[in-house]
Amino acid sequence: MDFSPTKEITCINDVYMYYHDTSEYTLAINLYPSGRIEIGRNDKLNQSMNQKIDDIDNLSKQYNELKETQDVKTWFDSLELLIERDENILDDSLIKKTYSDEVNLISSDTEIAKKIDAELSSIFGSPYSNKYLGKLTSQGYTAYLYETMYFERYKHNSWFLNAGSTLAAVASWMAIPQATALRIITFVGSVAAGYSVYKDLTANQYYANIHNNKTVKVGADYPYRAGKSQYGYCYIGDKGAEYVSRNKVNKDSDFDNNTLLMQKGIDNQINYGY
pTM for this structure? Predict the structure, then answer.
């Protein structure tokens, strides 16, 4: 399974947001100017989810100190170390893990597919079929090159999110940064009161792959092909979808050399008599 640890710190609307995804757990922490702190921790090994919500006066002072010193990373790293040493800091599980058998409260599969296609099209362009790329004449033969691009999508995970679930809990549970969760799911609240899920809904994770196939045509035959596939996920909420690359690409070595593709097509036509 492809996995690479991710750690990031962002500040959105004056809320410090810490996100750390490892092979064993995902931790999300939100620190608000008021001193409110939200912690969500998803234990991947034991398939358990814990969270904690507190309003601590002293944290408001610490928040202001962080704004001045900008030593945010050290502060969050220290808090993470404290949590990993003593998991009793966190409350018992407040939401349960659910997968793809949940009833989908967002939309039909067709509507989800439309959201995914819209997101992928905004990044990779709209799918196309038999797009003409050029021609090559050599050794008495003329080769024509065409390309087709299409999307592949199928469900991987689903999560039922209760209304009122905190942003930190959702981010850790779905293993996505808080910024991504905010873009695809409707949250309500404020910097003072914190952010929580607006209504009961199901969020989904789909495999989302992009395939490009180039085909050489010589006469009535198709003597050579080359392809490229890019692999990723799409996370879908009630607001929309967001694509996340898996940093995995399979590509024929000659895919980017159109002239070479057409020449190989002509050579195959001559040598193998298509």
Answer: 0.82
- DSSP assignment of 63-106 equals HHHHHHH--HHHHHHHHHHHHHH-GGGSPPP-S----TTS--SS
φ, ψ (nearest 5 deg) of residue 45:
-70, -40
C-alpha 98: how far from chain center:
19
Whether residue 134 contacts residue 262, with contact meaning beta carbons closer than 8 Å, is answered with yes
Instruction: Report DSSP letters for 129-187, one per residue.
Output: EEEEEEEEEETTEEEEEEEEEEEEEEEEEEEEE-TT-BHHHHHHHHT--HHHHHHHS-E
Amino acid at 158: S
- Residue 232 · residue 246 · CB < 8 Å: yes
Q: Which of 42-46, 52-56, 168-172 has the largest mean confidence?
A: 168-172
Q: What are phi and psi of 120, to 5 degrees?
A: -65, -40
